[in-house]
Design goal:
The protein is of the alpha/beta class. It folds into 2 domains: about 130 residues, Rossmann fold; about 270 residues, P-loop containing nucleotide triphosphate hydrolases (Rossmann fold). The chain is built from 17 helices and 13 strands. The strands form 2 sheets. Strands 8-9-7-10-6-11-12-13 form an 8-stranded mixed β-sheet, with helices on both faces. Strands 2-1-3-4-5 form a 5-stranded parallel β-sheet, with helices on both faces.
């Protein structure tokens, strides 16, 4: 709760202080100190932790939150419930009647700033509140970080079963783990998406809520709806009931991408190919597109069709053709040479088939790139992730040059095309 999830999010929409206490005696102790520090006395509410969870589930969290655990039967579990609705960056002070050093350590480890034992005196409250305010106002490490260009990557499976979701989860993990970029993964297979499943997460209702009510989508919604895989990666996925049609004009998906662009440094969109036909505007701001294919005749045909579609509908996007699940022994349906001749361009990356690694990753609930560190499959993912990050940085440099008048827009587009492999000679 003390670590900010969204770098740069201001405190202008937050209350500076809110308290939830269990009894009048505690309220009478807290209010004078609150007034002394310049905060509003009416922000001291009755109801303790239960009221705190209910209130913060529908409103923004304050800078500093004081919560009374006196009526809690399981303080540690209840604090975890509070963390689910509490906006990251909020500094939390808890109070209670249980005098247990182990509980204190567990509560601090869970993310709260301090735990005060009741009854307390005014000096204790004054010091705890002042310290919490200082912690909130202290410079955050993320605020000092160098601003980097946002990278939006669409992962499109050329054929069903090509392994696009496997590629998407590994890339999203690598952007965060190896490149240190805060990353959002958006799985747009509403009914059968595996983005959360591959990371051993529960998908939640965030994505379905966004589709049903796009007007709710804002920065706060993104923070609460997304499920964290780790400190650098968050996932928005769904497992909508298969009897329930999720009708949308695509505005919700576009808004989600826009909010993710503001909140994260990278966005990985697992984009089912039928979405390209239904919602082509989703590709309008995508810098890189990864076409995931297998070495088959049907896949070659569809690579050709998708390359033509992208050229017409997303000319700004650098396209990378990735051959996935390529057998290391035996002969694929079409050789690489014949496949490249058919699509009239090179295959950019080849990811070898490793059935043992795939089974291990599934059991561990980890992406392939994490489960098989050092394996040839993981090395291929790492090379692809590095290429995508480099492409984003080079594109940003060209944009900056164009803005300064050193390079025309036409030249910038030409530089983007130069990043793409040339077509193979017939």
């Amino acid at each position: 709760m003390n670590a900010p999830w969204t770098p740069g999010r201001g405190s202008s929409t937050r209350e500076p202080f809110v308290a939830f206490v269990c009894d009048d005696a505690t309220a009478d102790q807290v209010r004078p100190i609150v007034v002394e520090l310049g905060w509003a006395a009416d922000k001291v509410n009755k109801g303790g932790l239960r009221n705190a969870v209910q209130t913060l589930s529908v409103s923004a969290s304050p800078n500093v939150l004081f919560v009374d655990l006196s009526e809690s039967g399981d303080p540690l579990n209840d604090i975890n419930s509070l963390a689910e609705v509490c906006e990251p960056g909020t500094v939390v002070i808890a109070a209670g009647q249980v005098n247990d050093v182990r509980l204190y350590r567990d509560l601090v480890a869970s993310g709260i700033q301090d735990y005060l034992l009741k009854p307390f005196n005014p000096d204790q409250l004054r010091e705890a509140f002042s310290q919490a305010q200082a912690v909130f106002n202290a410079p955050k490490h993320s605020e000092a970080a160098v601003e980097r260009p946002h990278l939006t990557t669409a992962i499109v499976g050329v054929r069903s079963g090509a392994g696009a979701s496997t590629v998407a989860t590994s890339l999203a993990w690598l952007f965060g783990e190896k490149h240190g970029r805060s990353t959002a993964m958006l799985d747009l297979d509403i009914h059968f998406g595996t983005g959360a499943l591959a990371l051993d997460l529960e998908p939640g209702r965030g994505l379905t809520d966004a589709i049903e009510n796009p007007s709710r989508i804002d920065g706060l919604f993104i923070e609460r709806a997304m499920v964290r895989a780790n400190d650098k990666l968050a996932v928005l996925s769904a497992e909508a009931p298969i009897h329930q049609a999720m009708l949308s004009d695509g505005s919700a998906f576009f808004q989600l991408q826009e909010e993710m662009k503001s909140a994260f440094e990278c966005t990985v969109v697992d984009l089912p190919r039928n979405m390209l036909v239904q919602h082509p505007h989703l590709m309008s701001d995508v810098q890189a597109t990864v076409l995931v294919t297998e070495m088959t005749l049907a896949a070659a045909r569809d690579v050709i069709r998708l390359l033509a579609w992208l050229k017409s509908n997303a000319p700004q996007s650098a396209v990378f053709v990735v051959a996935n699940r390529v057998p290391t022994a035996g002969i694929p349906e079409i050789s690489r040479k014949d496949f490249e001749a058919s699509i009239e361009r090179k295959v950019d990356f080849v990811i070898p088939l490793d059935q043992k690694l795939a089974a291990q990753a599934a059991k561990l609930g980890k992406p392939l790139a994490e489960a098989g560190k050092g394996a040839k499959t993981s090395q291929a993912f790492l090379a692809l992730a590095s290429r995508l990050v480099s492409a984003a940085e080079e594109s940003a440099d060209d944009t900056a040059a164009a803005a300064s008048g050193n390079k025309s827009l036409l030249g910038r587009l030409g530089g983007l095309k130069a990043m793409m492999p040339s077509k193979a000679k017939k």
